[in-house]
Amino acid sequence: MKYILFCLLLTNLYAFSIDPGEIARINRYKSQAQEAFESENYQDAITSYSFLIDSLGVDDPKIRLNIAHCYFRMGDMEKSAASYSFLDQAEDNKIASVANQQLGFIKAKNKKYENALQNFKEAVKNNPFNEDARMGYEVVKKLIEDQKKKEEEQNKDKQEKQKDQQQDQQQNQDQQNQQDKEENKDQENQQNQQNKDKEEKEKEKTDKQNQENPQESKNTEEQKSDPKEQQMEQHMSEIDKERAEMILRAMEEQEKQYYQQLKKKSKNQVPKNNKPDW
């Protein structure tokens, strides 16, 4: 009981210590700021609210929240986000809820959906009756789901496109290989035909020369024959010559013996006719 009376005494002393003129001045600037805010003169409102905080020492979370609202409506998202961040953990749950809600809107606008979702979630925790924050949470959650679905479809399309490109490249490569193979075959056939034509022309030329100069052709053919074969023919020729000489000598010897026998017979008898008896 004594503690309560002491606190009341301190409160009364503090109240009496404030200059009534200072209170009137504070109220006047609050009214000016409020009028400027409602008239959408946000810069004037910011000036009045800032004077209350910086010059008159009025540290009221509601005034800071109004400054953040002014920056937000002016489109200065950087300063508004900084002002809201100063209040996202305020002791007043309703102020903390609104601050998180507004941070969620700013982050969602910048497509930072995961961070926005977290701010909306904190806003609903601080004030379950904050329907704007709850709606923002559902909208951003749907955006995240749609984004993931879109990314999956894009990845699928990208993979299919890459697969099609690989198939096209492989098909083009196969066609090129087949074309190269056919070209090589054509070149080979062409070369073979050229060689064949060349051989036929040379043969025709040789046949013509043989008809015009048969002896020269014979000599040429002999020159073209295999040296071993020529050597063998020469050897056989020498053998045939020796054998022929032997046979000839044998025939001469037989003929000589025949005449000798004939002479002997002629001495013994005269033949009935002049024909040989063999």
Main features:
278 residues, mainly alpha, Serine Threonine Protein Phosphatase 5, Tetratricopeptide repeat, 85% helix, 0% strand
Furnish the topology, listing elements before pairings.
Layout: H1 2-17, H2 20-38, H3 42-54, H4 61-74, H5 77-85, H6 93-109, H7 113-126, H8 131-212, H9 214-224, H10 227-268
Helix pairs in contact: 2-3, 3-4, 4-5, 5-6, 6-7, 6-8, 7-8, 8-9
Compose a concise summary of this entry.
The chain has 278 residues and is mainly alpha-helical. Among the domains are: 1-59, no CATH class; 80-174, Serine Threonine Protein Phosphatase 5, Tetratricopeptide repeat (Alpha Horseshoe). The chain has helices spanning 2-17, 20-38, 42-54, 61-74, 77-85, 93-109, 113-126, 131-212, 214-224, 227-268.
Question: How would you explain this protein's 3D organization?
Answer:
With 278 residues, the protein is an all-alpha fold. Among the domains are: 1-59, no CATH class; 80-174, Alpha Horseshoe (Serine Threonine Protein Phosphatase 5, Tetratricopeptide repeat), CATH 1.25.40. The protein is built from ten helices and no strands. It has helices spanning 2-17, 20-38, 42-54, 61-74, 77-85, 93-109, 113-126, 131-212, 214-224, 227-268. Helix 3 (42-54) packs antiparallel against helix 4 (61-74) and helix 7 packs antiparallel against helix 8 (131-212). The radius of gyration is 65 Å and the shape is rod-shaped.
**SS-based class:** mainly alpha
The biggest sheet, with number of strands, parallel, antiparallel or mixed sense and barrel status, is:
none
Shape: rod-shaped
Rg calculated over all Cα atoms:
65 Å
User: Which second-level CATH architecture of the domain at 80-174 applies?
Assistant: Alpha Horseshoe
The rounded distance between the terminal residues' Cα atoms is 188 Å
Q: Say what the CATH topology of the domain at 80-174 is.
A: Serine Threonine Protein Phosphatase 5, Tetratricopeptide repeat
Q: What is the ordering of alpha helices and beta strands?
A: HHHHHHHHHH
Total beta strands: 0
Strand content: under 5%
- How many helical stretches? 10
Mean pLDDT: 82
The CATH class label of the domain at 80-174 is: Mainly Alpha
- Low-pLDDT residue intervals, each spanning 5 or more residues: 1-17
Helicity, as a percent range: over 70%
